[in-house]
Amino acid sequence: MKKNVIRQTIIDTATRLFYKQGYNGTGINQIIEEAGISKTSLYQNFKSKEDLLMVYLEETGAETDAALKAAADKHEDPKDKVLAVFDYLDDLVQQKEYYGCNFLNIVSEMPKEAVRVRKQIKKQKDNVRNLFARILKPVQKEAMADELYTLFEGALIGNKVHDDVWPIRSARNIVNKLL
């Protein structure tokens, strides 16, 4: 395999395993075996398992940001844009291969000392807060971004705990009343 193909195979394999099994539940040997590569190939591309995790978080963060923005951009009215973000969550959590928020899953496994990982997760979560602020700026309600973000995160956590869609729908109903 060519170097960039090997690298992408490693990333794809680690992405699937980190999401489904968690960071701590995924070993380097499993990634190597399932990617069909040698240990040397892995370490030629990534210095550590954490470096591979960082790529996973960066790529997944960019995909998540784009998906949330795309959901919001289907509408003109700021309220409809925000509600569309919650509708996106509603659809997302009902997918067969949904195992929870990628970032909340990982951050729950990380010790406080994992500063680099926590910083990347915080960056992605701040992007969600900033999306809400940008959506609400035209109607001078951008100060509500923190409240909406809190409902967004609470809905994700509630969904993970209860394995049900009602926390997402409850949060959406609150947002509908607030806006």
TrEMBL record:
Coiled coil: none annotated. Residues 4-64 form the HTH tetR-type domain. PROSITE patterns: HTH_TETR_2 (PS50977). It comes from the Bacteria. InterPro entries: Homeodomain-like_sf, HTH_TetR, Tet_transcr_reg_TetR-rel_C_sf. GO terms for molecular function: DNA binding. Residues 27-46 bind DNA. PANTHER family: HTH-TYPE TRANSCRIPTIONAL REGULATOR LMRA, TRANSCRIPTIONAL REGULATORY PROTEIN. This is TetR/AcrR family transcriptional regulator. It comes from Chitinophaga agrisoli.
